[in-house]
Amino acid sequence: MPDCLFCRIIAGEIPAAKLFEDEECVAIRDVNPMAPTHALVLPREHIESASALDERHEALAGHLVRVGARLARENGIAESGYRLVLNTNADAGQTVFHLHLHLLGGRPMEWPPG
To answer: CA–CA separation, 84 vs 101, rounded Å?
Structure first.
């Protein structure tokens, strides 16, 4: 999608602090972090939101979660705790309509969120 911010980051058209990349996804630091550790795991495939996932995406969805957990370990927050979040659509806070998983950690999280 030529006008999608995350597609442009994945394509290398817009610079970003990459933390991980493989054939299925790219992980970057969030430019507006809500926690000491705040990363975004972006599938290379443009998928608008979690609502657009179907059975074809089951392995990809699991991969995004595994990459989030890997980044939590690499950033030293796996033991203390972290949150993986998929905001879906505007009322949930999704502002870029390209599926992305947030990894948040490095501080105590409140419940309920939002």
So the answer is: 6
Which of 46, 98, 100, 102 does the annotation list as catalytic? 100
CATH no. of 5-105? 3.30.428.10
Pseudo-torsion of CA 11, 15, 20, 23, nearest 10°? 10
| Average pLDDT of the residues in 21-48 | 98
Terminal C-alpha separation, the chain: 30
DSSP single-letter state for residue 109: P
Q: Is 100 noted as a catalytic residue in this protein? A: yes
pLDDT attached to residue 47: 98
Under 8 Å between Cβ of 107 and 101: no
Please state the domain extents for the chain.
Answer: 5-105
